[in-house]
TrEMBL record:
Keyword Glycoprotein: no
Catalytic residues (UniProt): 2
Domain 4-oxalocrotonate tautomerase-like: 2-59
Name the record gives this protein: Tautomerase
Source organism (scientific name): Pseudoalteromonas rubra
Class of the enzyme per the UniProt entry, highest EC level: isomerase
GO molecular function: isomerase activity
Keyword terms: Isomerase
Enzyme Commission number(s) from the entry: 5.3.2.-
Entries under InterPro entries matching the protein: 4-OT, 4-OT-like_dom, Tautomerase/MIF_sf
Record-stated family: Belongs to the 4-oxalocrotonate tautomerase family.
Length: 67
């Protein structure tokens, strides 16, 4: 019973993109490990950029500098 946990920043990930992630990661488990899609669980968490850090900084600050 595979459990796949995906975390992404909450920067406009669409429902269609989430569906693609679910389908793609489930298919990967089927192809690589021979797992059943009926027992493969995928959870997607969207994390605020204020709550995601890279190095010493919040992603929010990094994104502000990039614009």
């Amino acid at each position: 019973m595979p459990y796949i946990h995906i975390r992404v920043t909450d920067e406009g990930v669409t429902n269609a993109q989430k569906q693609s992630l679910i389908k793609g990661t489930t298919q990967l488990m089927v192809d690589v490990l021979g797992k059943s899609p009926e027992t493969t669980f995928v959870v997607i968490d969207e994390v605020s950029t204020d709550n995601w850090g890279i190095g010493f900084e919040q992603v929010t600050a990094i994104r502000q500098r990039q614009t």
